[in-house]
Amino acid sequence: MGQDRTDAPHGAELDGAAPPGTATADGADATPQATTPQATTPQGTAIGPEPAMVALDELCDAVRASIVDLEHVLVRAEAVRAQRAQGRSFAEIAPLEARPLAVELISGTMSRLAETGSRWRREEARALRAEGLSMDRIAQLFGVTRQRVSALLAGGRQQDSATS
Hints:
Blueprint (H helix, E strand, L loop, with lengths): L37 E3 L5 E4 L1 H35 L4 H4 L8 H29 L4 H8 L3 H9 L2 H7 L1
Antiparallel strand pairs: 1-2
Helix pairs in contact: 1-3, 4-5
């Protein structure tokens, strides 16, 4: 990785990658196109996409879906504010809310992000370990204990293989 997490300010881009939606001088999209690297055997034979990159792709998809859902929540919240400003009661407003309810969208978003974020963290820990980092170093990078890293490395294997 180009920058250690401990050196990068919150929200900083790693390796100088353009943030999503950034345009070049000619107006073209400068956002890097994602490609999922392939995992290989020690002999160099491709065996499929790297699990960490698959998990990262799934996390990115979950974040994009969450942004859309949370934008819907914001629109609905603003509509409730407007109706309250017109003097309507919550008892009048609540039955008019479309399904899924805003609170359902929020709950779904939180669940989706927790699940995909946990999988990404496990797979990133496994990838770092496979690249030779010690559990102490991974713990330092993640801001957790060595025992938590051990649990991350061991955890999720049954769940991950059951869903594959």
